[in-house]
């Protein structure tokens, strides 16, 4: 039987199991926005940890990060682990998001900002920021799936067929039962991701003679891969900060993950979610980086880092069956991110743009209908973007740069989020101006490739954004009463559960 | 110093190490025991620190 047959067979099994899980999740679906988009804030710790993990870790890890490691060495590990170190900030933000989410009934992180700053325009601005930067990010995940299926089936499955499969799955997982189907299928997909990536790494390391021999070969055979800055100049400190800064604040800047902070049903579930994710993230990051290092030994000389994973999977030492299971694992990583993005963007559109700006008197049922309609519309936009980009020569693999660019744009909401929780003097005008100007700076620098002093677009955008946020806030009038009430409530509530 | 201030200070210290050690101290150590091991241990310390803090959280009737 051909590789293409086994690819189709593997995809069919994956879709059948995912669909069965999503339909099972639907049995528990109730009514209303909070139910559809947040599973009524009643998810247990285990499912919360896995959905957080699957949403956070996308095709970027086994293709983009592995490729970055292949191309540039150990700096890729430091960059990705900076994100995981940033998760330390969850000890501040997780309880705060969770407490105010329960008290005020927020559905989206943008709604939190609108209420805290007493301005629907703050929510709308951050919502547009998310729409602008997350749709291309989602599209890149779709392309990753398309290229992977195309590569492993040896060209039999067209790229566009892979993209369509990913779109249909993402729409199904997010539409069938909202967050319930997303969270349950995420849990299934997170387990696939970690198990198959560990298995294939084991096969590759065994082929290299075990970990001792693998590390030995890496130290002697490929000079410059284990230090920063790298000898061939792939990593320098500006690049490291430019890439790591958006990653450091990913936990609050990306709404598809910060919305997850509303969902645990209890303090115990929160602890399980955070602890489970930290362990998952540590293991998955090490696997992805070691995978990239093994590619440097086994398939040297590739033109692009993002080709490392497909090239490694095509080696005879990887059995076809295992290669297909890995493809399913990477597909799962991509789809579990896309469906969460779709769900979050649809909730943001329904709550912060439709209800916030267009039709404030809409009923909750009407708002939910809008959100459910937006899911396939967003998916189609992402599909069109992915298809369009896939036709462009030279842009076949662009997961790492577009992921970094998207996060650099979303980084502009970070001062606004910090201000909401920690600074009573913060104002709506400061938030809006800093988000808009910061995003424009990032986009301009990204498009022109301009890097004054060698600093990256995200670094410049963030500096401009922080200065404007503080400066404009000090020059304008804060929502004093709301700030006192919001931060005052948190101060008291945090003490009760020994949060800090 | 409050627990809140301690936690932010500790986090800032970890971030400072993230730059100082691999970028200035281990620049010529071309071994797995160099930057690779540093970053692995460094993030394990960060994760452990988070565990130390959040394991003290307690359930309260609301």
The coarse silhouette of chain A is globular
Number of domains of chain B: 1
Helix and strand succession of chain A? HHHHHHHHHHHHHHHHHHHHHHH
Residue windows where pLDDT falls under 50 for at least 5 positions of chain B:
none
Structural class of chain A: mainly alpha
- What is the string of helix and strand elements of chain B? HH
Number of helices of chain B: 2
Task: Supply the number of structural domains of chain A.
Answer: 1
Helix content of chain A: over 70%
- Radius of gyration of chain A from CA coordinates: 22 Å
Describe the largest sheet of chain B.
none
- CATH topology of chain A, by name, is Sodium/glucose cotransporter
Description:
The complex is a heterodimer of chains A (500) and B (62). Chain A has helices spanning 3-26, 33-38, 45-56, 59-72, 75-86, 90-104, 109-117, 120-152, 159-177, 179-207, 210-221, 237-248, 250-253, 255-258, 267-298, 308-313, 320-358, 364-390, 399-410, 414-422, 428-448, 457-475, 480-496. Chain A is mostly helical and 500 residues long. Chain A has one domain (3-118, 125-394): Sodium/glucose cotransporter (Up-down Bundle), CATH 1.20.1730.10. In chain A, helix 4 crosses helix 15 and helix 9 packs across helix 10. Chain B is built from 2 helices and no strands. The model of chain B has no long low-confidence stretch (mean pLDDT 95). Classes of the chains: A mainly alpha (500), B mainly alpha (62). Chains A and B meet through helix 5, helix 6, helix 11, helix 12 and helix 15 of A and helix 1 and helix 2 of B.
Compact overview of the structure:
The complex is a heterodimer of chains A (500) and B (62). With 500 residues, chain A is mostly helical.
Tell me the layout of helices and strands:
The complex is a heterodimer of chains A (500) and B (62).
Chain A: H1 3-26, H2 33-38, H3 45-56, H4 59-72, H5 75-86, H6 90-104, H7 109-117, H8 120-152, H9 159-177, H10 179-207, H11 210-221, H12 237-248, H13 250-253, H14 255-258, H15 267-298, H16 308-313, H17 320-358, H18 364-390, H19 399-410, H20 414-422, H21 428-448, H22 457-475, H23 480-496
Helix pairs in contact in A: 1-9, 1-10, 1-17, 3-10, 3-15, 3-17, 4-5, 4-15, 4-17, 5-12, 5-15, 6-23, 7-8, 8-9, 8-17, 8-18, 8-19, 8-21, 9-10, 9-17, 9-18, 10-15, 10-17, 11-15, 12-19, 17-18, 19-21, 19-22, 21-22
Chain B: H1 3-25, H2 32-54
Helix pairs in contact in B: 1-2
């Amino acid at each position: 039987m051909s590789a293409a047959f086994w690819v189709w067979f593997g995809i069919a099994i994956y879709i059948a199991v995912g669909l069965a899980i999503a339909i099972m999740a639907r049995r528990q679906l109730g009514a209303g926005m909070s139910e559809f988009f947040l599973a009524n804030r009643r998810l247990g710790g285990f499912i919360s940890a896995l959905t957080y993990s699957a949403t956070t870790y996308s095709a970027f890890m086994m293709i983009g990060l592995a490729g970055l490691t292949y191309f540039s060495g150990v700096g890729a590990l430091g960059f990705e682990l900076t994100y995981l170190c940033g998760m330390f900030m969850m000890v501040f933000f997780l309880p705060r998001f969770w407490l105010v989410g329960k008290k005020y009934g927020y559905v989206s992180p943008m709604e939190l900002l609108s209420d805290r700053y007493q301005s629907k325009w703050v929510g709308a601005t951050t919502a547009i920021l998310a729409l602008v930067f997350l749709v291309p990010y989602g599209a890149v995940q779709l392309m990753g799936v398309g290229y992977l299926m195309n590569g492993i089936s040896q060209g039999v499955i067209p790229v566009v067929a892979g993209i369509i499969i990913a779109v249909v799955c993402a729409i199904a997982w997010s539409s069938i039962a909202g967050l319930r189907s997303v969270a349950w299928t995420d849990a299934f997909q997170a387990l696939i991701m970690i198990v198959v990536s560990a298995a294939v790494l084991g096969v590759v390391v065994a082929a290299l003679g075990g970990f001792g021999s693998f590390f030995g070969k890496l130290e002697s055979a490929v000079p410059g891969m284990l230090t920063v800055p790298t000898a061939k100049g792939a990593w320098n400190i500006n690049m490291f900060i430019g890439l790591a800064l958006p990653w450091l604040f990913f936990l609050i800047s990306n709404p598809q993950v910060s919305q997850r902070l509303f969902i645990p049903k209890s303090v115990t579930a929160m602890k399980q979610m955070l602890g489970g994710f930290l362990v998952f993230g540590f293991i998955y990051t090490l696997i992805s980086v070691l995978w990239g290092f093994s590619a440097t030994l086994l398939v040297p000389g590739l033109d692009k880092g993002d080709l490392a994973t497909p090239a490694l999977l095509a080696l005879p030492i990887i059995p076809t069956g295992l290669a297909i299971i890995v493809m399913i694992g990477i597909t799962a990583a991509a789809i579990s991110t896309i469906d969460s993005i779709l769900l979050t963007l649809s909730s943001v559109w329904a709550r912060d743009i439709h209800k916030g700006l267009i039709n404030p008197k809409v009923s909750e049922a009407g708002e939910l209908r809008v959100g459910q309609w937006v899911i396939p519309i967003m998916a189609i936009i992402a599909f069109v973007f992915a298809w369009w980009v896939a036709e462009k020569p030279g842009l076949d693999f662009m997961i790492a740069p577009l992921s970094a660019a998207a996060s650099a744009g979303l980084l502009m909401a970070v001062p606004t989020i910090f201000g909401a929780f920690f600074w009573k003097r913060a104002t709506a005008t400061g938030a809006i101006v800093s988000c808009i100007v910061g995003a424009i700076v990032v986009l301009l620098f990204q498009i022109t490739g301009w890097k004054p002093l060698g600093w990256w677009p995200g670094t410049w955008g963030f500096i401009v954004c922080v200065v404007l946020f503080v400066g404009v806030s000090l020059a304008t009038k804060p929502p004093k009463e709301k700030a006192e009430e919001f931060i005052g409530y948190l101060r008291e509530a945090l003490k009760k559960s020994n949060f800090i | 110093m409050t627990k809140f201030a301690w936690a932010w200070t500790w986090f800032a210290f970890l971030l400072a190490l993230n730059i100082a050690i691999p970028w200035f101290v281990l620049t010529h150590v071309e071994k797995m025991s160099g930057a690779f091991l540093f970053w692995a241990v460094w993030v394990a310390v960060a994760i452990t620190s988070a565990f130390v803090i959040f394991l003290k959280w307690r359930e309260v009737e609301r």
